[in-house]
Protein 1
Amino acid sequence: MTEKRLTREERKAQGKAARTRVPLEAHGEFAPAPGRDPVGLLLSQAPSRVSELVPIRHGRMLVSPFTYYRGAALPMAADLAATPSTDVRVQLCGDAHLSNFGAFAAPDRRLVFDVNDFDETLPGPFEWDVKRLAASLTIAGRDNDFTTEQCRAGVLAAVKAYRTALREFAHMPMLGVWYARLDIDDAVRGLSSQLDAKRVRKTEKMLAKARTRDSMSALSKLTTVVGGQRRIISDPPLIVPVEELFSDMEADALATMINTLLGKYLGTLQSDRRHLLRQFDLVQVARKVVGVGSVGTRAWILLLEAGDGTEPLFLQAKEAQISVLADYCGASEYDDQGQRVVAGQHLMQAASDIFLGWQRTTGPDGIERDFYVRQLRDWKFSIPIEQLLPQGMAVYAGWCGWTLARAHARSGDRIALAGYLGKSETFDNAIADFSETYADQNERDFAALAAAVSDGRAEAQSGL
């Protein structure tokens, strides 16, 4: 029998009823649990990573409290699990800090703004993403020497945009929600009433530059010609061709693994995209260190060329491990963690990379690992957070809030969510309170990691 669907009024009532379990004001609460050990949680991730890269991860985290926060998704997941939970579930990004939003090319070649990192995606309570975004705004604002009031204004801009967008989505047809997206050109045109002309022009120049960031630009930056052949430039330990990492036998085994991975991965793409990718041949593979929290997971950049050798394509095959949310939200329905990432990305993003796919493969060490594959560059662009002024941060925060609401409206019950959040600013202020308290905790955790490096419990390599 087909399950009876609730009416709009029943769904709205369910959302309002959740306020009885978790009042809106309760989201302002945070108290560290007894025996809390964020450094221990971070170190627990090291055994599954490339050992010589783990100190680079810690070194990147110790640049500032904000870079620490970027790498500390697991400690925050543990903290959020101890906060009041609505259990109004959506597909979570799992790491929705403000640097994990940005612009990239949609398949129709329009520049869109969206969430762009899904390594930790998993279903869970909607407020976890909101709290991670909000705390990141406060922490980044402090790093930029904003006042407390300016930091709070950024958080309130994000949460208000999230709440009001969900109310709008609740009254839209589902297909309308599905097709909604933030077009960067339209958004920049709307900035003229919020920012001065100089700032608008600077933003337009950055976006124009983003449109040049594709495989051709990557080719000039990442490769050179040696003996008539295009080769990836070695820049250890950040970019290292496989033939420099391993012996000839091991490098051959890894090349075989990558070719096998590509062959199987093709089966996860649409038929037209399989046809397109079959026009390219693999030329070379290199290991690349990426991000902050991801450092140490296996990430390979793959240089491919079309048959005549004049058309490059860079793909990235990135290892997908179990989400940091899994111990607190439950295991993924997908056994393959690469498929988990791709499915979550397709569900949350308005438009995804045409080459986004996944596959499990066995490495030269005999260990099975899951990967997802995408283009290395396709107009990808992130706002330089450290250059934002308070007014610009608030505008950017609004973009992030609207985008997160759209992602949650696609995967969760948008009507129940809107019913829970309501019309008042109670939720907004509670999240702002949480973000200030958690930013204080983050500073203590940053100091704890620095102390762990100082006393030898952890190792860090700076400058990389």
Protein 2
Amino acid sequence: MASLYHRARVMTCTGSDADPLGLIANGAVLTDGGHIVWVGDAVDAAAACRALDVLPGERVDLGGRLLTPGLIDCHTHAIFAGDRAAEFALRARGASYLEIAAAGGGIAATLAPTRAAADATLERLTIDRLLAARATGTTTMEVKSGYDLTVAGELRLLRVIAHAGARAPLAVVPTLLCHVVPPERRSDRAAYVRELVEVLVPTVAADRLATSVDVYCDDGAFTRDETAAILGAARNAGLGVRAHVGQFSDHGAAELCAELGALSVDHLEQVSPAAIAALAAAGTVAVMLPGACVQLRLPPPPVAALRAAGVPLAVASDLNPGSSYASSLPVQMWLATTHFSMSVEEAWLGVTRIAARALGLVDRGLLVPGARADLVVWNAEHPAEIPYRYGSNLVDRVVTA
């Protein structure tokens, strides 16, 4: 059914330097249920409907409220079981993430409950998290595997992600995450990496279980050479390339990702000027994850240097059980604007147009004809109100294609 949303402050996210958000003060959006058909000034809506020969079955008067593209969360670990609240308490008393991981906590602490959970349990937990994200405006959510670390287990997680995505009222983008070397394989690390390269990545590609491969290259995770081998296999298999880079130390993975034409590099608390220049030249998106950065008390990424170089900046939740147990993108926008010195406009583009780019998607994150009809109506008039009032959910309604 065609729908006309009118008398709205429409934020198209297609603007110029002078108006980055492309705001239409008295705007209207016409959809056919699945896609946007027309966007413009509300006074022209009737003529547009006649010209397009579209008779809206639903006319929604938004009374001046803000209408935006649906939000896109381009980095989450939403499939897991178990709880790590005790680690949060340890960090609050001063323990570092790496100290906790070395003592058997961190990612390794989530393996056992996730491996033990039945498919139905993991699916229910994942759907609950997807629904919580949708309630705060998310209409597309990337979900990574990575909390099993065996070939069979990672394939199982990706299949559960697909089942959860089919049942949830938002779009799910699956990613294979090569997270860390599991404790039981550390004695044959090289053999484990070969298994990922020769078995897991090709199987994921052949079975179309993910659109990209992400590798965590950092202290306690994969080395640069291991990352190069895994991401090389991903590219050879026709999958997108992404990586966790420089959260704790700079291992040169950002330059590697630029060479490989990566969709994104995520975290970047530690990154060199040369790497920033390489990312800018490659057009690779830098995904800011302020929730994890603030919770782990890390120095923020060099946002000013990234901006000056022209590196596109996305913002994501990093929803995970250890360092950012939060699914609300408005909260991350608040953190991005207050802790990362990003502008309100940068934060908005970071959860819409640029977040879509980080996932290799061209049909969302914008209000333009042909884009998916993923919309959010906010109980607000100004874009700044959403991060400013981060403690309140200002969503009036969420519309998904």
Protein 3
Amino acid sequence: MKKLSTLLLFTIFISCQNKHTEEVDLLLLNVNVVDVASGTIQQDQLVAVKGDTIAAVVSADNAANYSSTETIDATGKYVMPGLWDNHVHFRGGDSLIAENEVFLKMFLDFGITTVRDAGGDITPAVMEWRMQIAAGTMTGPTIFTSGPKLDGSKPAWAGSIKIDSVNDISPALDSLQSIGTDYVKLYDGNLTKEMFYEIIKAAESRGMKTTGHMPMSGDINTAIDLGLDGSEHLYYILKACSPLADSLTELGLGYGMMSTILETYNPKLAATIFKKLADNKVSVTPTLYIMKVLTELADTDHSADSLLTKIGDGVIATYQRRIEGAKRAKASGNTSRYEMRELVKTMMRPMYDAGVNIVAGSDCGASNSYVYPGESLIGELQQMVGMGLTPREALITSVVNGPKFFDLEVKYGAVEKGKIADLLILNANPLEDIDNVLEKAYLIKSGNLVE
């Protein structure tokens, strides 16, 4: 009996000796974990972070099993993945680089930990920021970028690469790959539909993702068949939802066909297009918030906007072009923006229900008047809810569907072990009210607490 007791004590001693705490860099204690994809919440959890990665998500009862250099008591708070703004712009030329850099902090202020830059003319600066942010020597969101846009012989935006013939495509894609861009952004300044299709084919053969603007002479069905991965804004999808699309194309009206397209929108045809987009995993960025801002631009006084003071004079000067355009449209009685917005309100629910990978993007940046970095992404989510999505579904378009475009679901999209530790901690439940994403308590970017 004495030998048995001695053996038992020895076994307990060895067990205690082998038990150890796991060392991590950051602990969130007693936090409610929001699973955006499923719409469920795990209460009173512990989230452990090591380096830039989530090391564990377990019950807070396991706190004794972890030791950390930094601990946050998040009792009563909610943690979700950091937000993604999937359509932003850094641009305006070298003289506005410093003013664009200010945007990085503005994104973080609103809980945005990742942005998808949709093309501009300060690519070297963007690449430098991206490198420094990844190295931890600069504070800002993770940046995915297209680099320069691909446009026709007379590009609409400075810094674009001209594609006038098939011979221009391979060197253009070579240049994008050489600087390490993440996807190809097409633009329709005067890009022909033939070159639009050829770029998609060439990019597809290289495994490069494509999205952007389609020439109004083109057909999005054809583009999807060729491998198009995304469509920015809704003009091109709307065109495909009109039974008059082919005849209007033959008239060569360009965007002049939009009023007729809006008048002839066919829900049954739309359902067919939505299914094709979903079946082919084409991401669609509606950019609803900028649609609202531009629709109301001629009638809204923005001089007292709280964020206007953060915008540099150079960027503010770029707003004038759209302001003057809005005034001309109002004077001429053009109400197409308003009509489009009203129609889009009927599209969001059916498009989401069809399984289209809708991604939230604000279109903020120089030239897009009063669409402020950070705030505008929240506005985008609010617009989605106002057009029929639930708060959960709106959040999915940002934090789940954004990573899907880049096939990065394994790294992003949830608060789970092995995911990147980009975490937004809120004082209120975002699944109950989309406005609760503004209730930021803490932000963790790549495992580091953002002050």
